[in-house]
Automatic annotation (TrEMBL):
It is found in: Cytoplasm. It comes from Flavobacterium stagni. Residues 257-261 are annotated as: ACP-binding. CDD domains: KAS_III. Its main location: cytoplasm. It is an enzyme of class 2 (transferase). The active site is at C116, H256, N286. This is Beta-ketoacyl-[acyl-carrier-protein] synthase III.
């Protein structure tokens, strides 16, 4: 009996039309294009501006893009995992609504929340369901409307984040392609450095919390940066070592797009040439749960069957990790 592995067999994505450029941010806060570009690598980000539309809108669009491009019958989807840090509502799962809206009425769905590592953890979860043999089609969506939790008067955070969504389909594979290994970590020490103080069970919403701006993201950027650089590089090196991979064996680094300098440091520790590093941070900024699938979508035509991909992410919590995956198809 051959072993079942979990392979990515389809990719889709969506970003809103509205572009927030560095030039426009210069008019909003005390910043400049040169600072943002050299410190982060970001040139512009997309924002979902239409009132009344939340993360589910981004997720539905990304899922529909995947379904249409690949002629998937939504009725055959068994499970939808919605990776997000910005659910439509605190209660009532965003994934459940998305499943209904895309016609995946035979699927069950749930949300998975691990800040910027949500999609990476989702890859692990989706693969485990496939490898168990219980489900044949698992749709993993990563989407975030970061603009809903960003203070556009705070230059420390508003220059970084953007909105977007991406989706991948996991299916069983008997050729040994798909997820090979994972090394996932978390550490509660990070909770104080990247968080939203209010709106949860510790500090429910009140007039004061709104007036104090406690519903916006707070980030101690310097500290998060320090942990992110060592965390992402450590796990990437670790997954290479325990799978006996050298830099020559790796075709692509698919790293969370939070800061170009963090990605470069990780690639450097892995000994990877710049040409193997997927990058789109300049166009979207940090879209939290959407960065990894947006990279796959943008680079899909260059990924070849059998290619070795290392995924790496670091996020609030702290949460971080790396995944080694063999790509399963050539895009026609
Ligand atoms: O995705 C989840 C995980 N998140 C991350 O991985 C993000 C990690 N952190 C970062 O990417 C970086 O720390 C930031 C991009 C957030 C900040 O970059 P930095 O190089 O760490 O800057 P800094 O906070 O050390 O600030 C350096 C200087 C300060 O001025 P002084 O004290 O040197 O006079 C800041 O006040 O830059 C100033 N500054 C800015 N200047 C222009 C901070 N933000 C800005 C800004 N424009 N937007």
């Amino acid at each position: 009996m051959s072993t079942i592995t979990a392979a990515i067999t389809a990719v889709g994505s969506y970003v809103p039309d509205f572009v927030l450029s560095n030039a426009v941010l210069e008019q909003m806060v005390d910043t400049n294009d040169e600072w943002i570009t050299t410190r982060t690598g970001i040139k512009e980000r997309r924002l979902l501006k239409e009132p009344g539309k939340g993360t589910s809108y981004l997720a539905i669009k990304a899922a529909q893009n995947l379904i249409e491009k690949n002629n998937i019958d939504p009725l055959t989807i068994d499970l939808i995992i919605m990776a997000t840090a910005t659910p439509d509502m605190p209660v009532a799962s965003t994934g459940v609504y998305v499943a209904s809206q895309i016609g995946a009425v035979n699927a069950f769905a749930f949300d998975l929340s691990a800040a910027c590592s949500s999609f990476l953890y989702g890859m692990s979860t989706a693969s485990a369901y496939i490898q168990s043999g219980r489900y044949k089609k698992v749709l993993l969506i990563g989407a975030d409307k970061m603009s809903s939790i960003i203070d556009y008067t705070d230059r420390a955070t508003c220059i970084i984040f953007g909105d977007g969504g991406g989706a991948v389909l996991f299916e069983p594979n008997t050729e040994g392609l798909g997820l090979q290994d994972e090394f996932l970590r978390s550490d509660g020490i990070g909770r104080e450095y990247l968080k939203i103080d209010a709106g949860g069970s510790i500090l429910p919403a009140s007039k004061d919390t709104v007036e104090n701006g406690q519903h916006f993201v707070f980030q101690d950027g310097k500290t998060v940066f320090k942990y992110a650089v060592s965390g992402m590089a450590d796990v990437s090196e670790k997954i290479m070592q325990r799978n006996n991979l050298t830099h020559d064996d790796i075709n692509w680094l698919v790293a969370h797009q939070a800061n170009r300098r963090i990605i470069d440091a990780t690639a450097q520790r892995m000994g990877l040439d710049e040409s193997k590093v997927l990058i789109n941070i300049q166009r979207y900024g940090n879209t939290t749960s959407a960065t990894l699938p947006l990279l796959l979508s943008d680079y899909e035509s260059q990924l070849k069957k059998g290619d070795n991909l290392i995924f790496a992410a670091f996020g609030g919590g702290f949460t971080w990790g790396a995944i080694y995956l063999k790509w399963a198809y050539n895009k026609q």
